[in-house]
Every structure is written in C-alpha cells, then in structure tokens.
Automatic annotation (TrEMBL):
It comes from the Bacteria. PANTHER family: NICOTINAMIDE-NUCLEOTIDE AMIDOHYDROLASE PNCC (PTHR13939), NMN AMIDOHYDROLASE-LIKE PROTEIN YFAY (PTHR13939:SF0). Residues 8-174 form the MoaB/Mog domain. It holds the Pfam family CinA. InterPro entries: CinA (IPR050101), CinA-like_C (IPR036653), CinA_C (IPR008136), CinA_KH (IPR041424), Competence-induced_CinA (IPR008135), MoaB/Mog-like_dom_sf (IPR036425), MoaB/Mog_dom (IPR001453). This is CinA-like protein. The lineage of its organism: Bacteria, Pseudomonadati, Bacteroidota, Cytophagia, Cytophagales. Belongs to the CinA family.
Amino acid sequence: MHDSIYAEILTIGDEILFGQITDTNTQWIGTELTSAGIRPLRKTSVGDQAEAILTALGESLQRVDILIITGGLGPTKDDITKHTLCRFFDTELEINEDALALITEFFNKRGREMTELNRQQAALPKTCTYLQNDWGTAPGMWFEQNGKVVVSLPGVPFEMKNLMTHRVLPRLKALFDVPIIKHKIIRTIGIGESFLAETIEAWEDSLPAHIKLAYLPHFGQVRLRLTATGRDEDQLNSELEYEVSRVLPLIDKFVYGFDNDELEDVIGKLLMAENATLSTAESCTGGFVAHRITSVPGASRYYTGSVVAYDNAVKINTLGVPESMVREYGAVSEQVVTAMAEGARKLLHTTYAIATSGIAGPEGGTADKPVGTIWIACATPDRTVTRLLKLSNHRSVNIELTTTYVLDLVRKNIMQTAQN
C-alpha cells in the first residue's frame, strides 16, 4: 500500500504550445484526480512530434504511478499519439470491433458518410484496453505496464471529461489503494503574502505532518490552501476545521470567505441579507466591475446597473459631477470619484454605489499622477468612503486590482452598515 499515488498529465498538440488554444483540460483533470485521492505531481505539454512524446512518456513513468495523456487522437495525419504509443509499448494497431461499431453508429445517426480516416479511428494498439467514448469518435486507451498506468484520451474537453468520469476514475480507484485528499481554502484580502506568512508562522509550524499549507496570491488576494491526506474522511474534515479555528483569530479581519467563495459571491449574499441594492460607476475599469458582479447567477436581485463614464462628459452629464470640479481637481481625484459614486447611487436608486477613476496606463500619467494612480469610492446611505490606490504600469493588472479593491471596499461597508 502506497502512502500516496502520484500522477502526471501530458497534453499533446502544437496548438497548445503555439498559444492557439487554452489548455483547460489540465486544470480539470488535476481537480478530479485530487478528489479521487491521487496526487498530481507535474503537467507537461509537447507538440505533435513523436520523439518528444516518447521522451515525455519515459520520463513521466519514472516518477509517477499514473500518466494521463490528452490530445492527438483525431483522424488526420498530424494526430500521431496512437502510433507513438505503439512504438512505446512495442505493439501495433488493429481494428477494435466494438470501437468500429460505435463509430459507425455515430455517423449513421447523423446521416453522414464515414470515410476511411474515420474508420481508422477504431484502430487501437493491441495491448491497450478500449475505453468507450460516448460523445465522439476517438476512443480512449488504457495501458498497464510494471504496475504503472497510462491513459490516452481525446483533447476535446467534453469528450475527455466524460471518459475520465465514467471510464477512467472508477478504474483507477479500483486498481490503486488511494488515500483521501481533502482541501480547505481560506480566502484573504488586504494583506500581502509575506506579511501573512509572518503573522501565522507559529501556527503553520505547528501543523501536523499530514496537513500541508500553500500560499496562493492572486490580484490583491492570498488564498491559504490546507491539504490533508489520510484514510478517514470525517477525521480529516474535523482536523481541517480545527486548524481553521486556530488560525482565524490571527487573520480574521483579512478573511472574506472560504473554499469557492469569490468576492462578488460574498457581496451578493450580504446585499440580499440586508435587502439592499448596488450600482456602479466606472471610468478606468471600463465595465469590468459590473462584469464581475453580474457573473454571479441571480445578481439581478440586488444589482441594478452601471454607468461606464469613460469620457468626462458622461461623468458630468449623466452622473452629475460638477464640471468645475473636474476642471479644478481632474477626473482622477477623490472629489470626482466621490461625486461619481454619489451620482450613481442617486441616478440608479440603490442602497450602495461604487466608483472607479484612474490612470490604468500604459500612457496618460503625469508627475503628480503617474500611471497606476486610481481613486475608488463607495457611497452608502450615510457616508461616502474613498481610497487612493497606487498600482503598477500594467493596464490589465491595474484593472484587475482596482476591481478587487473596490469590491472589497463595498463588502466592508455593507458589513459595517449591518453592524450599526
């Protein structure tokens, strides 16, 4: 019995390396393997080159128990995964009658002609176990050698997910004596990674050996991921909750949620609990704050809308910002962002409103207001709170960070109002 079962993920395809598609398969597979008690150790991407694939196969199987391969199983000449696997396992292709019957049925149902290339998709390495693909024409393949497992799956995400869920994961769980791996995530904002580490150092050092801590920073936030490994799920859950209860008093003011909570989810729940509403007025973020808020299903119950006041004329004519204020203080100022938030709240008849105005870059900065100078504001029923941000020279980073910080600003003010 192994203490841990390790896996790697190998994605095949020039289109991944060229940046022509985004590899979402690896993230999904990693999550599913972890949920099954299998620990992902590494991910690798290689192009459609046989020697590169062979090298990756050999190196991976020296490190792990399981290798999951995606991609290169199509009917065209650039899809070479099956042929390369034949070389690796010293075997040859033969038509699998079960696969051929399913592929034939696939084309007949759709009234399409099956070509010889399509027929050859039923040709599988003799030594593999056929994995039926219920959603496409490229079968999955399962190899076992010297106690190791290699699984080859199509790269099309919905086909891969179906095969992993119904064919691969049940087999892996039956074959390997896998431990249980449980995660608990604490989501923080407003404290840097190094300061957070210093604050919880003594607690981190006292964690049991089977519970590991990872720091995951992302645009103004730091997620603390606790990972516990063992054999008793209830005991692991209890231990994780106990460790959370120990660390929370140290960092409670920075914690906004747990596990899959996003800031916009938390804000929505707070607003609904108070029967309150929210609107936004955006300049430098160009609607990104509204996008984040409306990404939550049911946001229409508390979010009324946004004014993207990118031009000063919109600030003045729609939000009611005095023209003299813009001339005197500039669009990027505490005075103007305050008037934007208060104007949005009045215009859209909401309990709260938030606003952004700044210089996202890469141009437009001055000596007094360099790129990354951004004001944010939150207007409440009885006050307006502002904050000056001094961010980076990178436009996309500034937009992401500003959005995070202004969402946190309204979160804090909703909580403060509820407490009063």
